[in-house]
Write a structure and sequence with these properties.
This protein is α/β, with parallel strands linked by helices. It is 27% helix and 19% strand.
């Protein structure tokens, strides 16, 4: 008769996982992430999407379109280009755009809507800068007579001028 070997199974202990290093990592990582999340700011731009009306609506006197192109910024009245601001040293001339929009706002004080059109290849950063310029501008201090003694410089922040708050966004033609 053949001998059968009976091996006794010894009860082996299951090794425990050492998660001490993982817990140390979490103790350091979680507060770091919470602290850095407090300092990051997320800004949301609210946009009004144009809605097609079913009824007859009176056309506004001015359709303000700011068109951002690779070559520069154009301002249109809906029918044709009124102003052209080419890039200066590969940068858009935002201060000139703001000055021109302030002149338009003086002529049309009740107008609150504008359309920003942008070519698709341009970066989103340019859209945000142009939208900020269309929405508001900083009021420049009036030039003073330099013959008098200069007045002490005040630490007041520059005053904001609200221009066109209802902004619609689209692709440039």
């Amino acid at each position: 008769m053949a001998r059968r070997h009976h091996y006794r199974r010894k009860d082996k202990e299951v090794p425990e996982l050492d998660i001490t290093t993982f817990l140390n990592l979490m103790v350091v990582l979680i507060p770091f992430l919470l602290i850095s999340a407090v300092f990051s700011r997320i800004t949301i731009l609210e946009l009004d999407v144009p809605v097609g009306g079913a009824g007859q609506v009176d056309k506004p006197k001015l359709v303000l379109e700011v068109i951002v192109r690779k070559k520069g910024i154009e301002i249109s009245n809906g029918k044709g280009v009124v102003a052209n601001m080419p890039k200066v040293e590969d940068k858009y001339d935002i201060p000139q755009l703001s000055t021109y929009l302030q002149k338009i706002k003086k002529n049309y004080p009740d107008k609150t809507d504008a359309v920003v059109l942008m070519e698709s290849e341009l970066e989103y950063e340019f859209l945000v800068k142009v939208m900020d310029a269309v929405r508001s501008a900083e009021k420049k201090p009036e030039e003073e007579d330099l013959t008098e003694t200069p007045a002490p410089v005040s630490n007041k922040p520059p005053e904001k001028i609200i221009l066109f708050t209802n902004i619609s966004v689209g692709d440039a033609p």
